[in-house]
Fold this sequence. Notes:
Blueprint: E1 8-13, H1 17-28, E2 33-36, H2 41-44, E3 53-56, H3 58-66, H4 70-73, E4 78-79, E5 82-87, E6 94-96, E7 107-110, H5 111-124, E8 128-131, E9 136-141, E10 146-150, E11 155-163, H6 170-174, E12 179-195, E13 202-208, E14 211-218, E15 226-235, H7 236-244, H8 247-258, E16 265-268, E17 272-281, E18 285-286, E19 289-291, E20 297-298, H9 306-326, H10 334-362, H11 367-381, H12 384-395
Parallel strand pairs: 1-2, 1-11, 2-8, 5-13, 11-19
Antiparallel strand pairs: 3-7, 4-7, 5-6, 9-10, 10-11, 12-15, 12-16, 12-17, 13-14, 14-15, 17-20, 18-19
Helix pairs in contact: 1-5, 1-9, 9-10
Amino acid sequence: MQPQTDKRDLLILGGGLVGMTLALAAARKGMTSHVVDRADPAELTAEGFDGRASAISTASWNLFRNIGLSDRLEPHGSAIASIAVSDQMRPGRLDFTPEPHEGSLGRMFANRELRLALFEAAAEEPLISWHSRAEVTARHRGEYGVSAVLGDGHELSASLMVAAEGRNSPTRDEAGLVLAKWDYTHRAIIAGLTHELPHDNVAWEIFYSAGPFALLPMLDNPDGTHRSALVWTVAEKDAAGVLKLSDRAFLAEVEKRMGSIFGEITAVAPRSSYPLGFHHTAKITAPRLALVGDAAHGIHPIAGQGLNLGLRDVGALAEVLAEGMRLGLEPGDAQLLARYEKWRGLDAFTVALATDGLTRIFGIPGRTASAVRRAGMAGIQRVPALKNWFMDEARGVTGDMPELLKA
């Protein structure tokens, strides 16, 4: 075994949006980290918009601002001024529109822009040692520290290991952390749309029994043409056929579901898809190990909260570790992991169950079910306090918030 050198506070396995944000948040608190990721950053930040985008809540935007990313990101975000919820485009629409002094409900960013900002900041941060295009061949967690061996034989060591590898986290599975999970037997079809009319910064969530059909406002193209990101849920058995449709046939299907709200759809970016499932770990920690993001909880994209849930993990973990280190504890201390577990466990589980429930309620077919849903939506529309609660949830400003996620 090679000698242990350059031991750091954190060994973050997974350098995606959540993992790299954690490394930067930790650095702001004075913590050092190794970040290991198998992906090639050049491929993840290649030119072009393919529809892959993320809704960044108000709380998550506060986090980005507090770790120094807002100036870099600000020009690339499209504000979400309101959210329109519709059952199959029938009468009885539900609108969430904040008062002017309350600001937006969040911002939409192409994932490429988020990665560029994170990767540029990480490359300039001396407290982050970034190992890209690297495979982990072995992981060790011991009484006094953790380590990982890379494919080139190099060994990295730290006080705490953090699994940020996403839904199929090998670190989580190797640790034996139990998952509750199920498959929705649906896929999300992702595409970027260019359209005739402006979206007016409205995010649309249109529910069909086969699954939600979301249109998310993106910044206009440099030539002034209007763009939105499409997330269309289809049954697994239909997904391959939808992906193989010609652009003309695909747009005809899209227009059938959204009507003429954006006028003519003039172009569609290459389509991609991913399977939809639910998973949640009973525990998000083990000795000298913490899970963040999709490694801990994977939810349906119905409310656009997946990444925001992971960023709340980041804020909580960074705060717990920093406070512990001020008291002389090391990051891998069991007391700190217990506090992180207690803080994040219930919130993550509540959001996961809520999104699962929404998916099931809006997936019940038939006119009677639709009428009941629209009656419920009309009731919410008439109760300002209830609408405000939903908007605060969308902004991520409820509950026990980490300091990094506060304005």
